[in-house]
Amino acid sequence: MTFLTIGHRGVMGVEPENTLRSFARAEQAGMDAIELDLHLTKDGALAVMHDADVDRTTDGKGPIADKTLAELRELDAGNGERVPVLEEVLDAVRAPLQAEIKDVAAARALADVMLSRDLVHRVEVSSFHDDAVAEIAALVPGVRTVLIASRWGADVVDRAKAVGAASLALNIRRLTLETVEHAHGEGLQVIGWVVNTQEHLRLVRALELDGATTDFPEIRRTGRFTA
Question: Which intervals hold domain GP-PDE (predicted)?
């Protein structure tokens, strides 16, 4: 099975995260897939941003949910970049995408875009929330899904199976061989995040992971030899 290197919010270690510039750089670096995050604006647009608030990554303040898309467009997301919407990312790069949704409402909006643009083979959907994974699976037949976890219990594999996820994306700093072997035994892929150092890559190899999410483009090149 091919080892996958996934660009985290594009390549956020060298470009403003979740911007078209970052996604283009990830594609140029040859990332196998590009990860991004989705939040709904006040008027229902799928804004590409990680946090629920705009404070950390833009020159604005306040929750995304309280802003219209037009208001978001006025903000600087880094180096003059603007906050994109999902449709713009789909048009700007050709690489496969891994779209992280924050809640069930975002799942429903994403499902509308995926169905209208026939994206089931291009867009994989991930979430920390079991109900959001289950919702997108119910709305988009055949969609590939990923359950994400930073901290988890012994039931994480059962949780993934219960919502129909094909993969687990787990914090590399807490990942154990026992969890990986259990997941593989149940037919699940395991992706480690965030893999940014040679030490992390050695751990990826030792754990026999199926892929890694990284902030840096050079990890893909190095990872081909390490993992």
Answer: 3-224
